[in-house]
Design brief:
The protein is of the alpha/beta class. 27% of the residues lie in helices and 20% in strands. Strands 1, 10, 11, 12, 13, 14, 15, 16 and 17 form a 9-stranded mixed beta sheet that branches. An 8-stranded parallel beta sheet has the order 2-9-8-7-6-5-4-3.
Length: 433
């Protein structure tokens, strides 16, 4: 392994040829809502026909291309000014074409959360990967060791949060005959959070175990502040700051333990509190501070719209909601109730219900009494839309929480302008969940 996760590296961070080859995929029954004219046709050839949104069926999920470009550029510019690196969380989209856009904008690498996601990234030649999880699967560790040995340009780091996880990783890597040490970051958790060792003293003990394991290399520390708060109240922000200060304390405690060949990685930061991460950690001495925000690329019209740092004054150009659902009114069984043909199988619902925004080719719904009150598997309950949503009308819906939207769609049309009377389809984004 010629580079560490913290090292700068050169060249593209992904195999652009393999990403480009996605345009040669033949469209077929696997992909929801495609027009009949697209079936049996390669992606590039279908896009060359100049398709429009009207040709697609419902339910449907789309991306607004201009909003995606704005969000990617805005986040990259903010990170550059804040003096932090960005390894966006690829689990949000699992879309190599979108990963490439993030890497082309200056992304340091791609963050992932599981072994299957890691395999997808390596299939597309992603060169620098942070696994924000502990990899304990022996077969997976054997595969990883082989990947690192076969590709000196591949830089990888994962988390550990206990002496026992260190022991198991070391044992599996020894059994696999690992030729080079695997970089690991000690994960610090917090009370009521998810994974992560509880307390700085215990984290120091985990780091000491890593130093004793010949198959591992202590490369830094990390964690996730978003598990400790779910809002932007004073108490929520204080909990996040307190956790980040513990992370800074741990960095200081471990400063003498790191190797000298690369700066230690200090990583935190989802899409809700990355401003606080930069404020608390960017000035740490001799540290490579890496954010892992991922949802910013699509943003949303719900959870992140209400909690984003840019809403709280961290930036001048707020993110734009780029994800939209499209659903047709299929029933009006009561005067103030309409049933749409999109439900839990199609749209996210874990961080808020879809938001009615407009009728395609018709009036705006934002600011009216129209609202979605529930989702079944295949239906959305739209109430109080009055005469604005007759049977057959197609509605655009704002989406809350992109992390549970992309996984429902293997192919997502990209529109030139989701607010246009007749949006043009300019791309088709392939996902791999």
């Amino acid at each position: 392994m010629d580079q560490t996760f913290a090292s700068a590296g050169t060249g593209p961070g992904i195999d652009v040829g393999k990403v480009a080859a996605l345009a040669d995929e033949v469209l077929d029954w696997r992909f929801k809502a495609l027009p009949d004219a697209a079936r049996g046709v390669r992606v590039r050839d279908y896009l060359a026909t100049g398709p429009t949104l009207a040709g697609f069926g419902t339910p449907l999920l789309t991306l607004d291309g201009a909003a995606v470009e704005h969000n990617v550029r805005t986040m990259a510019d903010w990170c550059a000014k804040a003096g932090v690196a960005l390894a966006p969380h690829g689990k949000t989209t699992m879309a190599p074409a979108l990963w490439q856009a993030q890497l082309d904008a200056g992304g340091h690498g791609i963050t992932l959360a599981s072994l299957p996601q890691l395999r997808v990234a390596r299939a597309f030649g992603v060169r620098r990967i942070l696994l924000a999880n502990t990899l304990l699967d022996p077969a997976g560790l054997g595969w990883l060791a082989a990947e690192l040995a076969a590709d000196p340009a591949f830089a990888f780091a994962s988390w550990v949060d206990s002496v026992e996880s260190v022991r198991q990783m070391d044992g599996a890597l020894r059994a696999a005959g690992a030729e080079c040490p695997v970089e690991v970051l000690v994960e610090l958790g917090g009370p009521g959070g998810r994974t992560g060792v509880r307390g700085v003293d215990a984290a120091v003990d985990v780091a000491a175990a890593v130093l004793r394991a010949p198959t591992l290399r202590l490369a830094g520390i990390g964690g996730y502040e978003g598990a400790l708060a779910h809002d932007a109240t004073d108490d929520g922000l204080a909990a996040v700051r307190g956790y980040l200060r513990d992370l800074a304390d741990l960095h200081g405690r471990l400063s003498a333990a790191y190797a000298d060949d690369a700066p230690p990685v200090v990583t935190a930061g989802g899409s809700a509190y990355f401003d606080l991460v930069a404020e608390e950690l960017a000035a740490l001495p001799e540290a490579a501070v890496v954010l892992r925000s991922g949802a910013y690329l699509a943003h949303d019209d719900g959870f992140y719209r209400g909690i984003s740092p840019f809403v709280r004054g961290a930036g001048d150009a707020p993110f734009r909601g780029a994800l939209h659902g499209w659903a047709r009114v299929v029933s009006r069984p009561e005067p103030q109730l309409a049933l749409l043909d999109a439900g839990k199988r199609d749209l996210p619902f874990d961080e808020g219900l879809p938001e009615p925004q407009l009728v395609r080719g018709g009036p705006a719904l934002t600011g009216t009494a129209a609202r979605v009150t529930a989702l079944n598997d295949q239906h959305a309950f739209l109430r109080d839309a009055g005469d604005l949503a007759p049977v057959g009308a197609v509605l655009r819906l704002g989406i809350s929480h992109p992390c549970t939207a992309f996984d429902k769609w293997a192919l997502i049309p990209v529109l030139d302008d989701a607010s246009a009377a007749e949006p043009k389809v300019t791309g088709l984004v392939r996902t791999f969940f």
